[in-house]
Amino acid sequence: MSATYPGAVLLREFPVNVVLVECRRCPRRGRYRLATLLQRFGPTATLPEVLVALSADCDRRRDWRPDGPCGASFPDLVRRRR
User: Fold this and answer.
1) Where are the alpha helices (DSSP H) in 1-82?
2) Is 18 helix (H, G, I), strand (E, B) or coil?
3) Is 55 part of a structural domain of the chain?
4) Each residue's pLDDT tens digit, 49-68
5) Contact 19/34 with Cβ under 8 angstroms?
6) 1 domain-assigned
7) How many domains does the chain have?
8) CA distance 33 to 26
């Protein structure tokens, strides 16, 4: 478990084999094979750590305008919770 994100879901627990990343505030989208992400980050990486790394070059990552910073998320996780 990560000290930075205690209680966060681990990458190895991701429920599908293709990981989608989408931003709510811009048109950025990405698809990644889970196996590739596991090789790159390791099975104990937390989803927040992976998301920060994948969106590191986002211009809004540290932007605090009223319309908000980077809105990257894992849409498959949101859909599964409904």
Assistant:
1) 34-41, 47-54, 75-81
2) strand
3) yes
4) 998 888 877 777 666 666 66
5) yes
6) no
7) 1
8) 22
